[in-house]
Design a protein that fits this description.
The chain is of the alpha/beta class and 275 residues long. The protein is built from eleven helices and twelve strands. Strands 1, 2, 3, 4, 7, 8, 9 and 12 form an eight-stranded mixed sheet that branches.
């Protein structure tokens, strides 16, 4: 009897272990930007993918720089970021494979309604930043090596004085937190439009500068190179990457709105067939 119970218990434990292992196999680790996460887009998209693919996506929301470093170390299966030069270096270095264009939006500069730098409606982002520096206005920078931070630094580099003024503050925080800090301090900041639209109704800040072609903000999804790391969920990473650029994924991206405003626009090849 004891032998039967022992045998049955062993089988039961093996079954449980197999179930746990199977569940672990289905986990897909996605490192992506806080701007993507804060916008609410993934909360809308991922449940649909998980349901149709019997998978669970574990989202790690960090700055682009850290997301790519996690991919380089093999700590995630796939990355979705928005810093083209860094992404090219990631792929060229052999750390990522099969990059796919997923979507785009743009960056904007927001600030207090009083607008002490008088930049509202400026068409030239360089001149707007120069005015913020010249008036020593509060500017809250993410300072976190994110795609937004990288873009911001590249834009400061186009100004005559750069960011060397006393009220320029790098805070090392994600986009949502930075918007809240800028709101509290009555300062300016640069944000992706998606996160701005997600937070706009909660803040006193106003959208002041938009439309400069240099503010274009494209996103890519890139699978981590399985030849460099053991234990990656290669199949899951491919399924997730393919789904984002599928007709279903692209339609859901285009349909995602807050207050009737689109946050992102799908940019994948329309020839891609949903799988």
């Amino acid at each position: 009897m004891k032998k039967w119970i022992s045998g049955a218990l062993t089988v039961a434990l093996m079954t449980v272990s197999a179930a746990v292992f199977s569940a672990e196999e289905k986990i897909i680790r996605l490192a992506t930007t806080t701007s993507t996460y804060n916008s609410g887009l993934l909360d809308k998209l991922l449940p649909e993918f998980e349901k149709t693919h019997n998978a669970k996506v574990q989202v790690i929301a960090v700055g682009t720089g850290k997301a790519l470093r996690m991919g380089q170390a093999g700590d995630v299966d796939v990355v979705m970021t928005h810093a083209p030069k860094s992404e090219k270096a990631f792929v060229d270095g052999g750390f990522g494979v099969h990059p796919k264009s997923v979507m785009y939006n743009d960056f904007v500069i927001v600030g207090p309604a009083e607008d002490p730098a008088q930049i509202q409606g400026a068409a030239d982002v360089t001149k707007a930043l120069q005015a913020i520096a010249a008036t020593d206005s509060q500017f809250i920078s993410r300072g976190d090596d994110s795609g937004t931070h990288k873009k911001e630094l590249s834009l400061w580099a186009t100004t005559s004085a750069g960011k060397q003024f006393s009220n320029y503050k790098e805070v090392g925080q994600g986009m949502g937190k930075v918007l809240q800090m800028a709101d509290e301090l009555k300062g300016y900041t640069m944000t992706d439009r998606g996160t701005w639209l997600a937070y706009e109704s909660r803040l006193q800040l106003k959208l002041l500068v938009e439309g400069d072609k240099r503010l274009f903000n494209p996103y890519q999804i890139i699978q981590v190179n399985p030849e460099l790391h053991k234990g990656l969920n290669v199949e899951g990473a491919k399924e997730l990457s393919d789904w984002f650029v599928s007709s279903k994924g692209q339609q859901m991206i285009n349909d995602f709105r807050i207050n009737e405003k689109a946050l992102f626009h799908g940019s994948a090849n329309p020839q891609v067939v949903e799988k």
